[in-house]
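Troubleshooting: if your tokenizer reports a length mismatch, compare your output against this known-good record of 65 residues.
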Amino acid sequence: MNNTTLQVNGMSCQHCVNSIEGALKEIGASGKVNLKNNTVDVTYDNQLTIERIKEAIEEQGYDVL
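Known-good structure output:
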């Protein structure tokens, strides 16, 4: 399993947390959102790429830096 931390802009509430964590779950990753630091810790296997993870978050309306 791989781990990475992404900086994400636009998160502010529990809805944001649910949206991002749910989108990651749909593609086979798991995520833990930290609203205070504007980060998402992602755990994923080798079948996923960072680009696909970023795309899943951006599809929810957030900006991945």
